[in-house]
Design brief:
The complex is a heterodimer of chains A (136) and B (199). Helices cover 29% and strands 38% of the residues of chain A. Chain A is built from one helix and ten strands; from the N terminus they run αββββββββββ. In chain B, helix 2 links the parallel strand 3 and strand 4. Chain B is globular and about 75 Å long. The chains are: A alpha+beta (136), B alpha/beta (199). At the A-B interface, helix 1 and strand 9 of A face helix 1 and helix 2 of B.
Chain lengths: 136, 199
């Protein structure tokens, strides 16, 4: 009765050791799955485009049709290092209240952080805060 | 090795299900966000929760105003920020209500709720004070920098409005810019007069 119990214990240890690569892969799979889910839902108000050039990374914030972006407080990229960079745009309403076209931001290095913008869809008469997480 | 493959297969399945669930939740949240708030306006009867804001403007000695101290008065709460055009567009209406109905029992309260983090300046009391002067606002305003009252009243949009009756009950809640004399201004005016007429 004693010997099988010992064997069971040894087998348990051995299986646990062999399971590590599998668990690591499992964790990776879960992480990938979660990341996919977070990026899967597009924002209905604005979307972010990214282009890399010699000068760095160019981010473009494009409002959906009928969506205006508050120009009183410009959209920003809050980077993980604590720096805050403002987007610039040229297409504005006649009273300079809102941006109506794309806004751009040239970033020299990492863009990892959060893009924040106050968006005001035409016809709704309200504003919302939109946050988009960025990586790279 | 077989165990590893089995574990990976199970984990992948869990990840896929998790991704689908999260994606559905995110979509539902976005769908709720994208609803037109004007159609979400609602008439309610429920006790108005007490706010706890400590930083006030336009009150004697900058002392806090408590909802409990306003029992017997009709209260119009306005959730706003000075950086929001839709918010400042509605301020002339609120100033008019204040001047027109204060002596009849209406108290207008501004809840200043920043959109951006502190670097944008919305959290600074001096900036809020400047906005109050700019828009000729004489009614009390609280700083709701941590959005505690915003969350307490389940507010989603700038600007939003909550009308509380003399018994301290929320009777109407809505969102969206309006202007002096337009249909929405007249609707809120009608609601205010209705509640002022009640005992």
């Amino acid at each position: 009765m004693t010997a099988p119990a010992r064997l069971t214990v040894k087998a348990g240890r051995s299986t646990r050791c062999r399971g590590w690569p599998g668990r690591a892969l499992a964790a990776l799979a879960i992480a990938v799955g979660l990341a996919t889910a977070c990026e899967a839902a597009p924002n209905p108000y604005i979307h972010l485009q990214r282009a890399t050039s010699g000068a760095g990374i160019r981010l473009e914030l494009v409002p959906a049709p009928g969506v205006r972006i508050n120009a009183r407080v410009k959209p920003v990229l809050e980077r993980v290092d604590g720096s805050v960079l403002a987007f610039e745009g040229s297409d504005e309403t006649a009273d300079s209240s809102y941006f109506t076209g794309p806004l751009t931001l040239l970033v020299g290095r990492t863009t990892t952080g959060i893009v924040r913008a106050s968006v005001c869809p035409r016809g709704e008469r309200v504003c919302r805060m939109v946050e988009i997480r960025t990586s790279q | 090795m077989t165990n590893s493959i089995l574990t990976l297969t199970v984990a992948s399945a869990i990840a896929l299900v998790g991704a689908t669930v999260l994606d559905s939740a995110a979509r539902a949240r976005l769908l709720a966000q994208s609803r037109n708030p004007l159609t979400g306006e609602r008439a309610l009867v429920q006790p108005a929760p007490e706010w706890r804001n400590t930083s006030w403007l336009n009150t004697p000695d900058a002392k806090p105003v408590r909802l409990s101290s306003l029992r017997g008065r009709v209260v119009l709460l306005n959730f706003w920020t000075y950086t929001c055009w839709n918010c400042t567009g509605a301020l002339p209406s609120l100033v008019q209500y204040d001047r027109q109905y204060r002596d009849q029992g209406l108290t207008v309260i501004g809840m200043h709720c920043p959109e951006f983090p502190p670097y944008a300046g919305e959290h600074d009391k001096a900036n809020v004070a400047a906005a109050l002067r700019q828009y000729h606002i004489e009614y009390p305003n609280a700083q709701d920098n941590d959005h505690a009252t915003w969350n307490l009243y389940d507010i989603q949009y700038w600007p939003s409005f909550v009308l509380i009756d003399r018994q301290g009950r929320v009777r109407y809640q809505g969102a969206g810019e309006f202007h002096v004399g337009d249909a929405t201004h007249l609707e809120w005016d009608k609601r205010i007069r209705k509640l002022l007429a009640e005992e």
